[in-house]
Fold each of these.
Amino acid sequence: MSILGGGIFKGMAVTLRNFVGSYINKKERLPTNDYSWRADGALPQGIGDYPKEKGEQLSDTTTVTEYSRNFPMLLHDGGEPMDTVRCVACQICERECPPQCIYIEKDYDENGKYIKRPAVFDIDVSVCMSCQICVEVCPFDAIVMNSQFELSTPDRFGGLLVRRDDLLKSNDYYHQIHPEEAAARDQKMAVEKAAKEAKKKAAAEKAKAAAEKKAAEAAKEEAE
Amino acid sequence: MNEVIAFWILSAVAVLGALVAVRKRNLIHGVFALLVFFAGLSGLFLLLLAEFIAAVQVLVYIGAVGILLLFAIMLTERVAGDDDRRMTSRGWLWGLVAAAAVFVLLLLPLSPVQQLSMPKAQDPSEFLTQISDPGSDGKFGTEEYPKFGKDDRKPVEQLGRKLMDPYVVTLEVLALLLTAALIGAVTAAQSVRMPKEEDSPE
Amino acid sequence: MIPELLINILITTVPLMLIFATLFAFTTWLERKALARIQNRIGPNKVGIPCTRIGLFGLGQPAADGIKMIFKENIVPRGADRLFHLLAPILALIPAMLVLCFLPLDFPWVNEDSVKAYLLDGAVIFFFAITGLNTLAVFMAGWASRNKYSLLGGMRAVAQMVSYEIPLVLSAVIVVMMVGSLNAAEIAGVQMRENWFVFSPWGFAAFVIFFIAALAETNRSPFDLPEAESEIIAGYFTEYSGFKFALFFLGEYIAMFAISGLAVTLFLGGGDGPGVTLDQGLPTEAFPGLAVIWFLMKIFALIAMMIWLRGTLPRLRVDQLMGFAWKFMLPLSILNILVAGFAWHAERLGNTYITVTTWVISLAILYGAASGLNQLNRGKVRPREYKYAE
């Protein structure tokens, strides 16, 4: 027969051990303050402080870990953003987004033919819940997650709608903030590209072989 | 002098509270005004140096009866007070006459008392000797215990002894009454949920 | 006459308010840090000296919270009762502050003339009467928000507070019975002469019951059903923002201090400690103010216990809560009164053997009753009955 209130005492002993251990045995009891994933194992200067310099975009992305995510961004492969943008405005992410915060309009040239670029690509900051579904479904690896968190503005309506030109970031920036994931994504794209090239080459060779065979047959028929 | 000012302020609060309580259309406002009246009454008890009664007044009336009234109103009625309730009745003149008669009746026993002057610190022991106290040792009003507060028998103890000695039957009857009320309340609350599971799947 | 009286009143009350308001700020900081450390994280540690980066372990956090709450917009729901919406937090704060003057804190700057409310002959019962006004404030808050969930939360809170008032008062009755007086200073004085009441079996049981009921009265975990965030959002103070919420918060913490103070007075000796002796009716201290320091340290020990329990225990459901009050605490406290009554008479006989036997027997009775009630109230697990299957 257990002592009256024994469960409560056991619980209180556990919490006391947690409390005392968080001063003595910091590594075991405070796991979220553990920064050993950093290459030097030490805390950079001012880590965890709210960044005060509003200068470059990177200022608020270097104070968070490389696994943090906040808001999507469109990737382009360097140079003039709209020339090398990966997004083709297929609108898959618009349809898959659960709170429906993406708004896309396709780009048409002078003749009305569809160019593979988005003319309008808006994401509403107040609606986006950072679920990453748009990243998962994009077939072109065009939209990935940024870790920039300084998105507040005094304008309650227009300021919270991030437009296409603010969403475009280069692939080098992506490598800087999320090195592991960017490398994995580049490798996946290279593998896919190589597979596509190999398939194209095989198809071309088969077509050439078929064309040669046809030419040979035609030549044989003519010979007879 | 302080006591006179306090008396007038507390009486004004109590009377105003009572008036607001009966005249307000919104029932909840009325009940809160009634609680202000109870608080004023408790202050008047304090002025009479009956601190135990003052505390019990707050504890029982404001803390229990007030909450009970609020629950009762909440559970039974629309309290927004926007219905057009007529607050005057036809026989208001006779009501006023009856209230004046009760007022005069209440004032009659108080005429020997002096003009609302509060007794000084030595006098309450005189009041206490006026109450017939079969269990007392006759300690009051003597040279040994002149000042109130250093008595062995404080008013609370006096109250307790009186409850046990002359008035114990009253106490027990009250206890039985309260028990009966409790049991009745539990039964009344339970009988609403009649077991309707007579139909078994057969 | 009047200015003198006013000064005498102000000398006792204003320092009390200032001291306890400062202690409140310190307690909010302490609670956040302690809860955080229990939950494997650090609490606030950035807000220290303003305009610098020196975070003094987050000691500036209460000030920052206060400033934030003052500047928040004061929203009153449309159609709500504006007068009661304003009155409810005030009515929650005033009883808590008022009741602090009934604690026997003998500050060194207080002289013979100043008004000491704890020397009232009915100080303890005044304490309970005024603490009962908290229920009224909760109900008013729930009703004035014009939100049916707030009203529901308010009613549940009032039911909880009213149910736990009875064991609270009954366990205080034991101490009053042993001392024979409702005078707070006298109760503390008796404990300075003899043992603290917590060291006797009925006193210990009464202290435990009092402490649990005090947790429930101030809506503290594990009884914080009315104000839990995962329950009915915030229950009766959902619609309160800014300074009114701060007033509720302040009222809750000061009520915590007040009830802990009463527990210290009734059970833990109230000012008793090494260096304080009772000499011919008046306590003498090694240096003036030592009794107050001991009192405040004991209050802090109880507050630390409350914070510890908050970090440990899950929240009780409303039917578990009410069942606990009416089926366990109430019978136990009534039995405790009976046992204490017998023990009082037994101690009067003066025989040590009888006293020791009484202690052992009362310990056995109380522990047995508590375990018995526990077993009785254990939920019965029946095999599942299928009405339609098979």
Amino acid sequence: MSDPRPYVAVVDDEESVRRALVRLLRASAFDVEAFASGQSFLEALPARRPDCLVLDIQMAGLTGRDLQRHLAVCDVRIPVIIMTAYDEPMMREQCLADGAYAYFRKPLRGDALMASINAAITHGPRNSPLQNAARP
Amino acid sequence: MKADSASVATARHPASAWSAAQQAALLLRLAPPLACAIAYFCAARIGEWLAFPGAPVSAFWAPNAILLAALVLAPRERWWIYLLAVLPLHLLAQAPDFPMARVILQYIFNCGEALLGAWLLQRLAVEPRRFDRLRTTAVLIVFAAVLVPLLTSMLMVGAFELEGLSDQFWLTVAARTITNTFAILTLVPLIVHGAAWLRAGTRSVPLWSGLEGLAAALLLGAIGLLIFVMPWEESLKPPALLYAPLPVLVWCAVRFGISGMCLSALLLGLLSTWGVLDGSSPFSGQNPMHSVLSLVSFQVVTCIPMLLLAALIEERRHTTQALHTSETRFRSIFQNNIVATAIWCDAGHFSESNESFLRLTGFTRAELEAGAVRCAELSDFWREWEQRTAGSQEAARIFGPAEIELRLRDGRVVPVMVGACPFGAGREGGVLYALDLSEFRRVEAARQLAENLHTAVLTSLHDQVAVLDRNGVVLETNDSWQRFTASAQAPAFHCVLNGDNLVQACILANRQGDPVASELLAAIRGVLEGLSSHRQLEFALPSGNSVTWFELSVEELRRPEGGAVITRTDVTGRKQAEIEARNQRQQLTHLGRAAVLGQLSGAFAHELNQPLTSILGNAEAGLRLLAQDKIDPVELREILRDIVHDDERAAQVIQRLRALLRKGELQRHPVSMNSVVREVLSLSRSDLITRNVTVLSELDPRLPLVLADRVQMQQVMLNLVINACEAMADMPPRQRRLAIVTRYVADTDVVELTVRDAGSGIATGEFEHIFQPFVTTKKHGLGLGLAICRSIVESHGGGLWAESPPGGGALLHLTVPADGDLGAAQDLAQLPA
């Protein structure tokens, strides 16, 4: 019997952020799994595909942007919600252009995040130009 | 036993040596009296031998003359020794032949005669042992040879008559007197001069003098034999022949002096006595007593004028010699005197001068000797001389010394010091002295010039100058110092003047606790005692509402007597500029730091937003769980603990930022460079992640601490890290490696920190250029970062430079002196709370 709750994956290299988001999302009736890096998320992906991905940008090694692009290029269609602790100019536009469902600056309010996740699960992922380009 | 006998021997030896020396000295003292006594005895025996048969008198009685000569030669306090020494030998010579009473009386009167004669010679003659002096010879003749023997003879013969020993008073008196007179006249000068000759050491007699003496002696002997000894027919014996020896005696007196004269008189006396004893002499008669008296009278009468002649001639010779010596000496003084001296004669021209005069005036010796140099040629002198001496008395006519300008024949004008005095009462010429003052004037002018220059320099100096002697007494101060002293409201030791003792003033002020006085005292003492040649200090004095800053330097006074020069300079302007520059430097450093932090603003935002995100997330999760009423207390505790932790983390970030943005004075404390590296890496962590830069740090765990301002060191480190990151921006992410190494360099006792990037490196020749201000390769930036970094590191006594290491990239070296007192840091330094 599978869990009826929507499954949300959180990728952030900061443990305290992961712990807080996991708590928040579980309290909001989501099935949540947190990953410390993009690499560990990709490793777990074949086993279970999340309904929504909450992704931090600034991470050592594979950054959030790298992972977003990788998923698009591999045509893994998961709605992605981007969050960042430092808002660089044009970052929001680039992320949305690449198919992100939403873009949040940290610290982010729980209500807004919940609403965005629910909407993303409901509407499904947005198309990405990278995805289109990869298609033959 | 051996040792004992040796010690006895050594003990005895000095005593015996001492007594031998004493004996030798005693013998030497007794030798002259003994010799005198022996000579007295021999002379008495000869006198007895020469006694005329049938007459109670000897032709030559020498003992009294020998005793007199000995007393003349001896010091007066030893005369008694001579008299005692003579006594036994007198007895030995006389006692066998005469009654004891006569012998004793003879001894008494012989001694009395010698004593009185010697005493009169010493009292009346200026030089009693110089018979080549007319006065001494005259005293000898009149008193010692005639009057004293006459007196003693009269007394002695009177005593004889009282004792019944004689009955012919006047005849005996005459006979004794005349025989003693001849012996005294001939023997006393001979013995006294002979002793002087022996005492002066043996001197060789010139050959010609020896031959001449021999010839004179032979001639005199021949004449004596011919006249007194050879038997003559009564009719053929002309009385005038008695004068034949006179020319030879005069010859001897003139050529051989008093001694030669005495020897020739003795020779003549010997021959004439021989003739009388032989009966062939012109003086031989029926009455032996008369014969003796006639003979000795002849000898005495011949001898006296000859003696006087010899003394006169010798005295003349001595006087002439002394005059010549004196003349030579004075001429030498005249000729070699550095004072120009010239004598003018009544005709009004210079007749004689020394070389200095010729050199000064330019006249020649030939002109002078020809009488061609007129006094009026030295018109400046002559005019003065005539003006001052006209109509004045003799005593007032001595002119000078006076300084005049002397115009010479060749037109030169020479400053001279002149003096002159006339000869005689009238105007019979005079002598002029002149000393050339040109050299003195030149030296004086140079000295005056140097002194004027010295005074002018001191007066013109803007700095305040005081010169101290070795005891700290002020010798001289310049105008600037005096003006300050007169106007400044400064402690007394700053206001010393000439004659005051600065060291004492400082000691007094130091006792009252003035720190500047204490410092100045140490500086002055250090220089005066030769511990250092230069000391310097700075101090401030209140001046109205502000302060005036002074720099005071103490320099060694380079002269043999020592001392110091104090220079006080108002450096308020410089001091203000320094303060201004320091403020600007601090401001610039702060701006540089703000700029660096600006570059890291993204990283700081990230570092703050992360904990804020956690806090917010946790708090909302808690609220939601509470709203659903399914909160687990354990979970709630964890949520709250995480919130507290994240809040603390955020506060730390803010604290670090505040510390870096702090604006203020340098605060140097012991700092671990390892902790500086860690703090900076922590601050820039997000930035490094964003830039995909991997940091490899190798930090020496036993690194010593350094004395530094932590914030400034962090600023430098941040700059180096950011520069390194930017240098690698164009490289592939995998290659973006930043290596940070710390180590201790024992050789130079410094802590070294290196930052190496994997960028494109620094072009050769740019290693120094990159540290220049306003040099940058970035689009945005002033290019002040590295210039500020270097100025910070250098202000800590360290260094900052760049290299191109093998393998590419750039290598930045930073060194800071290790603080030896602080020991190894043990890497315990932590971030500030």
